[in-house]
Amino acid sequence: MTQAASGNEHTSHYALKPRNPVRAWAIAACLLIAGVVALWTGLAGEAANVALVVIGAVLAVAGLGLGIAALTFVSNRTLYVVLSPDGFEVSGPGYHKSGAWIDVDSVSATPDGARLVIGQGHIERTFIQAPGGIADDQMKALTADLSSRLANHGR
User: Distance (Å, rounded) from C-alpha 34 to C-alpha 14?
Assistant: First the structure.
């Protein structure tokens, strides 16, 4: 979280990111290393071992593909929340909602704190969900900040 202060009012920025896919990174690294070793071994010597070269190339490409997929997953699944003195803005993959504090009628949370719902009027809802469905420190800080802002606006 970062904050830009201006007097008593401040703007808070939150980036709710999914956990780093360590298992995918480890598998990708193992596949890539095994593929390069098999490729290098298949090409070494006087007669190239075609089967080993093909297996090595397939493993290396699979490892590289899994690594790129893991990187894309983390970068594309981040939910950004901005809380300003005037209102809020929530944006993520295919999702963008914003509103003014004066229009907020209700805020509710699941018992575990992993999901927040900001209500505006009878229909308009903004959903904020912690990555992985688990309320981490970032989500708890966001909830506390949101609560204090609503208390300051008499809600």
Answer: 39
